[in-house]
Fold this protein.
Amino acid sequence: MAVYIHDERERAGMRAAGRVAAATLAHVGARLRSGVSTADIDRWVREDTARREARPSQLGYKGFPAAVCTSRNHVVCHGIPRATERLAPGDIINVDVTSEHAGFHGDTSATFLIGPVDAERRALVEATRRCLAAGVAEVRAGARLGDIGAAVEALARAEGFGVVRDYGGHGIGRAMHMPPHVPHTGRRGRGLRLRAGMAITIEPMLTIGWPALSLLDDGWTVVTADGSPSAQFEHTVLVTESGREVLTAQPVALELNCP
Ligand code: MF3
Ligand code: CO
Ligand code: CO
């Protein structure tokens, strides 16, 4: 399983793609409020991506029918936007934007809170955000994939939440999904050794209780088996000689609390 090493030129391409995906996520995030439909989100992603001379990577990917994944409440990931699905107070919703710009892909997501959200869901979202940060902090040349998984898993466990094992992060570059698979659980010192020039995503999904999942009949939507909520955050990260570059970092922190 060869993992692609990006040279200096390709790293510049990846930075540009990461900035596009991050900007579109911020654009959409600033417009979320109760009453918005997930189809509105899909339209905003298409419009904003086009303005940035990019293409939504997810549209048509293995037949995925939309430009963005919108995963609300008990939807863990890969939710399909729908005109009939409207945000309501108390919802949490993950918006996952992947953009292809000049041949490179950037992939990033965040979970937003709509109106007043109950304390358990707020804690879930906050823990997930911190799990992503803990995973990112492990990235450097010479570190192992197991270091990332172990850091995410330890924090999730300490906060009392479950970590999804069936889906994980991935390599990214001239394709949205490339080797390696990046687990959000694991053991320190195990797994692939990271090298400068590798680009991966880290995208932990946390659940309340044990994360048993089911797949809906549409073939895409992944939900918790018991209907309990789930949250996710994602960044695209470049491994560098001295540490890491978060290619989808937000220049101004996203406002996760929406009206
Ligand atoms: N952006 C998703 C990820 O983080 C990809 C979802 S594949 C799709 O890997 F086809 F559902 F869009
Ligand atoms: Co991803
Ligand atoms: Co994504």
The helical segments are 8-29, 38-51, 119-137, 145-159. The longest strand covers residues 104-114.
